[in-house]
């Protein structure tokens, strides 16, 4: 007499486990991509905010030199008055993941990985250049090093 067994076979259980595992991997990949995009959005937003305030410094002083960002190679968050007066939270404007400043060589930031927002060129009467790194594409920016200057984001 044959008994009718109830339950799942080993093959059925393995197929379900494989499908659940695949879905978990896809969810992790999507989440990491979303996090990277969120960090890049924060980077661009922070640098646009700094750019707006640098233009305010220029409109009131007819020079970027008086911004309080006096040395290339230092973090933008260390800029002093008057920029810190226009942007009181400047000391907290930092890259979401990087803590070291970008390496600057002859006015060019040369890092190939995320680094803190850095003064690339000492502000002068008519120019300044701050650099930041994006991990992926955002808007018309590709992955890599970018700058803000009087010309905008490049």
What would your notes on this structure say?
The chain is α+β, with helices and mostly antiparallel strands and 154 residues long. The protein has 2 helices and 6 strands, in the order H-H-E-E-E-E-E-E. The model has no long low-confidence stretch (mean pLDDT 90).
Give the SSE layout.
Elements: H1 10-61, H2 83-86, E1 104-105, E2 108-109, E3 118-121, E4 129-134, E5 144-149, E6 152-153
Antiparallel strand pairs: 1-2, 3-4, 4-5, 5-6
Task: Provide a compact summary of the structure.
The protein is built from two helices and six strands; from the N terminus they run H-H-E-E-E-E-E-E. It is of the alpha+beta class.
Q: Write down the secondary-structure element order.
A: HHEEEEEE
Q: Which structural class best describes the helix and strand composition? A: alpha+beta
- Beta-strand percent range: 5-15%
Widest beta sheet: strand line-up: 3-4-5-6
Query: What composes the largest sheet?
Result: 4 strands, antiparallel
- Number of helices, where a helix is a run of at least 4 consecutive DSSP H or I residues: 2
User: Can you tell me the overall shape?
Assistant: rod-shaped
Task: Give the low-pLDDT segments.
Answer: none
* Total number of beta strands: 6
Helix content: 25-40%
> Mean pLDDT score, rounded?
90
Distance linking N and C termini: 80 Å
Cα gyration radius (Å)? 24 Å
Number of domains: 1
